[in-house]
Each structure stands twice: as structure tokens, then as C-alpha cells.
Amino acid sequence: MERMKKEHSEEKAEPKKSKVHIKADDLDVEFMTLDLSSIASTMSFVEAFKAKGLPLHVLVCNAGIVYGGEAQTADGFEIHFQVNYLSHFLLTLHLLPVLKASGGNAKVVLVSSMAYRQVGWHEDNIQSNNKDQMTRYGSTKLYQIMEMFTLAEKLEGTGIGVFSLHPGFVDSDIFKKENQQISGPTKFVVGMLASIKLSRNTFDGALTTIHAAVDPQYDGKTALYFENTKPTRLKSSVATNKDKQEFLWKYSLDCLKDYVTEDTLKELTSQ
């Protein structure tokens, strides 16, 4: 946050060097604790946010891990499954009342990945236990897209749009040297892609998310998947399969049965 404010101040002083122009003199940003590997932390965040009485126009579910290892969370879930998908699912359900109360054209944006194309469907192992790390990661990204379709259908008529997207290959902190989970060959490939300009910097990597979140041409629309800032056709029959979408939805609710009440689910249909 300090870096953001410093950069914003510098850009205001020299607007010609800025890629974007923000009208505000100061950035109004606030930190709140949220650990998606913990259901207790996720629920605490929900209550803390609701207590502030703030509106919520856009919810971007962007947090995720690729190299979490073969680990279970304290809640008993495979760590990629919980961090990348399940806790976002829980968070979204509990924030629906705030999204609805904040006016029309609210958005839920689920940041997925083209890694969804590389995985299959295994109803007997939804959490991808004992699978390689890219299968675990890709499966959670597939689930985000499947969630988009089901959530969009259930929220029809509520004024909330639900989108998903692939941001591109972004040279972000997840690939830095300090991350000991990343293999040497992976670091080499990441560095090579960056050197020949095939990876995106974090500014460009955010553009597709921003288009999905605030571009007015998508107001009133829902269930769109974006790549390169534009809606794109999905390349997976699993992602668009309604029976599999419904299976995943019910499986997710069963995982969260102690945290999702009937009153919570009523928000999916009530205006």
C-alpha cells in the first residue's frame, strides 16, 4: 500500500510518465486480514467487512497458490483446493447480501487460468489429492469457471454479473527466487519468457481483470470468460457441462455444510 501511494504521488507530479490517470489526489485503500487457507479467517473477514457498513460493487477473487506442496489445511482440505477455490466460494456466498444492496451492475470476478484446459474431471477425487502440482492448480482454475456458470444461473435477475478470466502469463512475485517450492527448470523457463517479452508485467497482467470488473459494455451481462481483455470461447467440454457444474456445486456445499445455512442460500434467489 505504501508503494502504491508513493507511485501514485509520483504519477500525479509527472502525469506524462503515467500509464493511467487517476483523478483522486490520494488513493483510498485499506488492508484487511484474510487467510484463504483457513475457514475461520474467511468467516472473520466476512463479519469484519460487513461490520464496516461499506458498499461492495466488485468482488475480485484473485488470490491463489501454485506451489503449495502436498499439504492439507487445518480444515482438512487439499490446500490448493481450499485457497484457490473453496474459500472464494464461501466468501462470495456470504457477501452476496452486500453486493445486492450496493446497487445495480455489481460484479463477481473469478480469476482463473488457461491451465483449466490441461486437466480432466474426476468425481472420485475432486480435490486432486496425490496429483502433481499443476493438476492440483489447473483443477481449481477449472472449478472457478464452472462456479461462474452455476452462480450466474442462480443469480439471474439479481443484477449481479459473474465473470471469469485468464490474465495471461504474468511475471509476478509467485515466481521470485525466494519461493523455494519452485524448481530450477521452472525458474529458468519463467526467466526466459520474461527476457523475450512473452510474459506480462503486473500492470498488463491486471488489464483483463479490470475490463471484466468495470468496463460498462459488460453491465447487465453474466457468465462471460475473458482472455486478452475480451470475452472468449472456452476450450473445455468439462467447464461447460451442466451436470458436472451441479455436481461440483453440491460437493462444495457439502464441504461447507457447517458454514452455509439455508438463509445464506436464499440470497441466491431473493431480489
Automatic annotation (TrEMBL):
Coiled coil: none
MF term (GO), any: oxidoreductase activity
Highest taxon listed in the record's lineage: Eukaryota
Keywords: Oxidoreductase
Listed InterPro entries: NAD(P)-bd_dom_sf, SDR_fam
SUPFAM superfamilies assigned: NAD(P)-binding Rossmann-fold domains
Transmembrane annotation, as ranges: none
Family statement: Belongs to the short-chain dehydrogenases/reductases (SDR) family.
PANTHER family (alphabetical): RETINOL DEHYDROGENASE (PTHR24320), SHORT-CHAIN DEHYDROGENASE_REDUCTASE FAMILY PROTEIN (PTHR24320:SF152)
Name the record gives this protein: Uncharacterized protein
Organism: Strongylocentrotus purpuratus (Purple sea urchin)
